[in-house]
Design a protein that fits this description.
single chain, mainly alpha, two-stranded antiparallel ribbon
Length: 543
């Protein structure tokens, strides 16, 4: 038994470590778009959209844009069309990912981890291969390629969030660290950029990334469950190859080795037991959920979760900040070009600085996890449930995230090039806090059996708002003449809406605390009254 438990702990540790590597190196590489754009521009992608004006009328003049050789008499070149097309690639990709998140969340909840990760691997391999075979003449391949990469990365991250269930006391910290690793993986494209400047072609780099798919396949088969990792973990729960060298039969009993549950039981019973284990997480039940997998207690419906105030204000919180970050990624390159007066050496320097700060996302994320888990291991207040304690801790995390977003866009809206160092730092810090806090809040406030659907629905609904990126980008290019200053100021004001969510959670927790105190006082008063009545009844009658 001890040997089996030791192997289970080892498997949990390997799952945790490999998940960190997967998120750090693959899940969020599409968000390193700024570094990739610099390479794509150098290779001439969408260069046909640049308008060039020269002052030479001699026949045979040669125009060379990359050096100072003969014919270099260009007086004006306008590549705003090229910048707009690159921004459109990322905007379309992020929109497509958000639209399909709800059906993909349903796939995750209904069919489990294995099916979801197989789909993610296919999308990842397709995206990397499309970039590897693309060229200047086929620049349009970037649209499906980045869409596949950004969607596959989100699927990898979504399936990795449940790894936190293996470590109860550090659950939110694990989720936050994974979010930071997801954010830092954008630096992979910085490595691609640096290698490109040293002679390694873009196509070779992405062929290597495509071949890394075997890492995902290995992890999917041996270090991840077939269905889901429940919270809380049942006794002797295992996945992958069974401990003590035993393997399940693939014949009559068809024991599910990856999920740790015998498939001889009906699937509905498995789902009910999983839901009952997670009843403590739901915002609609004030009592502690059962820990036994065979205890079947009803769980609140998906519809009730969606119609709750928590879901509404969390949706606003996510939408506003996600819109700010996506628009920042889409416009930061032209903003740097404008502030640097199109000095490509200076633009490359700031692009590298931004990419290097993205590496720090994995270092910033644990701070949010520690904030969320700061109450773990401490005694609860009288009458307080674990869920209420988790919600109380989450309010501070949500507030700090909103404050970071506000400061981030204040700096980005200020047209000072050196100030963009602070912008990059705040963006990476805020991004790490957003994704970790977002996923952790969903696991705290709602039943985990609805996690995939709720996360997907929230992302899909935010896609409707992200459609505004298209007219905003058109507005910046047209009416604002390529200067996003006024648009950034409006978004800065819009970030004030995000403070409603942490305020609502705080007031909800304070209301619950007041109700507990009122119940305690009432119980004391009732107890005192009962004792008085008993004393009165026992007193001898005086004639």
């Amino acid at each position: 038994m001890l040997r089996c438990k030791g192997r289970a702990r080892l498997r949990h540790s390997l799952t945790l470590a490999s998940g960190l590597v997967e998120n750090l190196c693959f899940s969020g590489i599409a968000y390193g778009w700024v570094s990739l754009v610099f390479v794509l521009k150098t290779d001439g992608y969408f260069s046909d959209l640049c308008n060039i004006t020269v002052n030479s009328t001699k026949s045979g003049d040669i125009i060379m844009l990359s050096d100072g050789q003969p014919g270099n008499d260009i007086i004006l070149y306008d590549c705003s069309g090229q910048d707009e097309q690159f921004s459109m690639v990322f905007t379309v990709a992020s929109f497509c990912m958000n639209v399909v998140r709800f059906p993909l969340g349903y796939v995750f909840d209904r069919y489990g981890t294995l099916a979801t990760r197989i789909l993610a691997i296919c999308l990842y391999t397709t995206g990397t291969l499309l970039i590897a075979v693309s060229c200047q003449e086929h620049s349009a391949l970037l649209f499906p390629a980045i869409s596949c990469l950004i969607t596959s990365g989100m699927l990898f991250y979504m399936t990795n969030v449940q790894v936190g269930n293996l470590f109860d006391r550090h659950r939110s910290t694990v989720i936050a660290v994974y979010a930071g690793a997801f954010d830092s993986s954008a630096a992979v494209l910085l490595i691609v950029k640096v290698l490109y400047e040293r002679g390694v072609s873009l196509h070779a780099s992405f062929l290597v990334l495509a071949n890394c798919s075997f890492i995902h396949v290995f992890r999917t088969l041996f270090l991840m469950p077939k269905t889901h990792i429940p919270y809380r973990l049942p006794d002797a729960y295992t996945y992958g190859v069974r401990c003590c060298g035993r393997r399940g039969n693939s014949g009559e009993e068809r024991r599910e080795e990856v999920g740790g549950v015998s498939m001889a039981q009906p699937r509905a019973k498995y789902m009910n037991s999983t839901e009952s284990n997670e009843a403590e997480d739901t915002m609609f039940q004030g009592r502690t959920g059962p820990s036994r997998p065979d205890h079947t207690e009803p769980v609140v419906s998906f519809r009730s979760c969606v119609l709750s105030w928590f879901f509404l204000w969390h949706l606003v919180w996510v939408i506003v900040m996600q819109f700010c970050h996506f628009l920042f990624i889409a416009t930061v390159n032209p903003v740097l070009n404008q502030l640097a007066n199109r000095d490509q050496t200076l633009v490359s320097h700031y692009t590298n600085a931004f990419a290097f700060t993205q590496l720090c996302g994995v270092l910033c994320a644990p701070w949010n996890g520690l904030i969320l888990d700061r109450h773990k291991g401490k005694p609860l207040a009288p009458g307080e449930t674990n869920r209420e304690a988790d919600l109380r801790s989450s309010s501070l995390s949500l507030f700090l995230t909103s404050l970071q977003c506000l400061l981030f866009y204040v700096c980005f809206s200020t047209p000072l090039l050196p100030l963009q160092y602070l912008t990059f730092t705040l963006q990476v810090l805020n991004s790490a806090f957003i994704y970790g806090g977002h996923q952790a809040f969903l696991t705290i406030a709602f039943p985990s059996c609805h996690f995939g659907k709720l996360s997907g629905l929230m992302t899909s609904l935010s896609a409707l708002v992200l459609l505004l990126q298209f007219p905003v980008l058109r507005l910046i290019k047209g009416l604002l003449r390529g200067d996003p200053f006024h648009a950034n100021v409006c978004l800065t004001v819009l970030t004030l809406l995000t403070f409603i969510h942490p305020l609502h959670v705080y007031l909800h927790c304070r209301s619950l605390a007041n109700q507990r105190r009122a119940r305690a006082k009432q119980e004391v008063a009732n107890s005192t009254q009962i004792r008085c009545d008993l004393c009165s009844a026992e007193m001898p009658l005086v004639s």
